[in-house]
Design brief:
By secondary structure, the chain is an alpha+beta fold. It folds into two domains: 123 residues, Jelly Rolls (Sandwich), CATH 2.60.120; 75 residues, Orthogonal Bundle (Arc Repressor Mutant, subunit A). Helices cover 43% and strands 28% of the residues. The strands form three sheets. It has a four-stranded antiparallel beta sheet. A four-stranded antiparallel beta sheet has the order 2-7-4-5. The model has no long low-confidence stretch (mean pLDDT 88).
Length: 207
């Protein structure tokens, strides 16, 4: 830790700052100390595909730094954040000096790969927007809290970002939320989602 502290450079980033951009040559790794960020790709037609959200403690840009390939996504800070940057060459020398840190880096790469497979399986292979949204809500509810009214989940992203996450439009997501609500499957109040009937939601998923 003392060695890592000696090579990192910490800075505060305001909301919506870009840490790195898709296609940019790797400059190093970014440790998200506090705050949240989103990672997304952009198609040749300019359509955004939201890949995932990153929370405090995650290292971003790891794959590019290790492979010396361009960043495969854009990382944007969602709120004021504290970020530590380590230049690529210094980070690689750090890994050579510390086997445990090298193993942890490999594990994080493995976790990100598994996350991508899980996302493809749960959302990417779905046939309709309704199925994709149902899968996403079920995934969130698996980490929610049981209440007498249903499973409570706090949603910290907008409907536009949900649409980007499932490859749909904000209008479609808004319509589906209204439909699921009218069928008493869910209730959405602000950022609080109550899943009343996960069994019925699961029946929408094409297994």
């Amino acid at each position: 830790m003392d060695d890592f502290e000696s090579i990192k450079r910490s800075a505060a980033y305001p909301a919506h700052s870009l840490l790195f951009m898709e296609g940019e040559s790797p400059r190093g790794i970014f440790l998200l100390c506090h705050g949240r960020a989103k990672l997304y790709m952009t198609s040749s037609q300019g359509k955004m595909l939201l890949l995932r959200f990153a929370d405090g403690g995650e290292v971003l840009g790891l794959h590019a730094a290790l492979s010396n390939r361009p960043y495969d996504a854009t990382a944007e800070v969602l709120e004021s954040a504290q970020v530590a940057f380590v230049p690529q060459a210094e980070f690689l020398r750090f890994l050579e000096r510390h086997a445990e840190a090298c193993l942890k880096a490999a594990r994080q790469l493995s976790d990100r790969c598994q996350d991508a497979f899980d996302q493809m399986r749960s959302i990417g292979l779905a046939h309709t927007a309704a199925e994709k949204l149902a899968r996403l809500l079920l995934e969130w509810s698996s980490e929610g809290h049981e209440t007498p009214q249903g499973i409570r989940v706090e949603i910290h992203i907008t409907q536009e970002e949900i649409a980007q996450l499932i490859g749909s439009s904000r209008e479609t997501v808004n319509r589906l939320f209204s439909k699921f609500g009218s069928e008493s499957l869910i209730t959405l109040h602000g950022s609080t989602l109550l899943v009343h009937n996960p069994t019925a939601l699961a029946s929408l998923v094409n297994t």
